[in-house]
Amino acid sequence: MAPDIRDIEVIAPNLKRRLSGVTATIVRLVPLQAGMIGIAATGPGLPPHVPQIPLWRMFLMPRNRYRVWHARRNTEMLLGLILKSVFRRKLKLLFTSASQRRHSGYTKWLIGRMDGVIATSQKTAAYLERNAEVILHGIDTDGFSPPEDSTALRRGLKLPEDHVIIGCYGRIRAQKGTDAFVDAALALLPERPDVTALVMGRATEGHDSFLNGLKDRVAAAGLSDRIRFLPEVPVHQIADWYRVLDLYVAPQRWEGFGLTPIEAMACCVPVVATRVGAFEEIVTGDTGVLVPPDDIPALTAAIAPYLDDAGMRGASGKAALARVHDAFRIEREAEAIVAVYRRLLAGERW
């Protein structure tokens, strides 16, 4: 049953049918926030469990109260402005930015007309030419958690039970640094017969030749049995693939935010990552190691100690788990965003 628009205080538009990181964020947050404030999403492609209102209803919203319009894309900022300025809806406009590059003049113009702005990292906030509330993404720490029996889990997934297993998951393309991970594995594995590397994900259209080239290089090195390329798995299965790892590697050359290190850390897995996205705000202290992007020797050198030292892996894994529970629970993200909604609805100046 759709929520009654008269009871809604916050609207989260999703103006993109194809699954994206923004859509995934809305799907994760809105059901949780619905227990804290009157909120509904609107737009195409949303699953039925997300509280939502048809998009056409936005043009007929009653003017009985101010509502927050929480945009995460340029198109959504523009629609919010149209609803507010042309259709005279009573809206407080909020934008969340994850971009880590200089904005175009058009985007700056849109952002300048928002009543409030959230940045998903300090690095993102540095590119905004106005004040922003920094709220880091969080994850479901019930869904992502340490394994109860990693040996049995490996057996069930047909993975070597006595190997050190390292992994790199996500879209397979140059931007994600998949080739950097493969290069490091090709350098490290020949002298370490008890190590297996997993590359899991999907090469979208236009990246097939990139993936095939990586497979050919691994085959030429005679390591196809230990550098394994696995297909993308459904969201509800991915946590088990983190749980079988001893080390997660995030070798991206560029990233907007990057949730995969947090997901791995929540499963008690240390991380080696590049200094992109929000990784410098995620991988801190003893939770792992950061290296410059596109620096294969540095990446290789950072991974090596984890392959050779079980005590280091164990200590870093525990630190990683504690870090996630302290700073990256999705409940914390949801509460922080709701606090921003309430400030806007109360008329607080940004």
Specify the structural class.
Answer: alpha/beta
Order of helices and strands: EHEEHEHEHEHEHEHEHEHEHEHHH
Low-pLDDT runs of 5+ residues are: none
Q: CATH homologous superfamily name of the largest domain? A: Glycogen Phosphorylase B
* Strand segment tally: 12
Largest sheet: 6 strands, parallel
Overall mean pLDDT stands at: 94
Share of helical residues: 25-40%
| Share of residues in strands | 15-25%
CATH architecture of the largest domain: 3-Layer(aba) Sandwich
The global form is elongated
Strand order of the largest sheet: 2-1-3-4-5-6
Supply Rg.
22 Å
Q: Count of DSSP helices?
A: 13
- Kindly give the count of domains: 2
- How far is it from the N-terminal to the C-terminal residue, by CA? 35 Å
Assign the CATH class of the largest domain. Alpha Beta
CATH topology of the largest domain: Rossmann fold
Structural account:
- The chain folds into two domains: 5-138 and 330-345, 3-Layer(aba) Sandwich (Rossmann fold), CATH 3.40.50.2000; 150-327, Rossmann fold (3-Layer(aba) Sandwich), CATH 3.40.50.
- The strands form two sheets. A six-stranded parallel β-sheet has the order 2-1-3-4-5-6, sandwiched between helices.
- Helices cover 38% and strands 15% of the residues.
- It starts with 9 loop residues before the first strand and ends in a 5-residue tail after the last helix.
- It has 350 residues and is an alpha/beta fold.
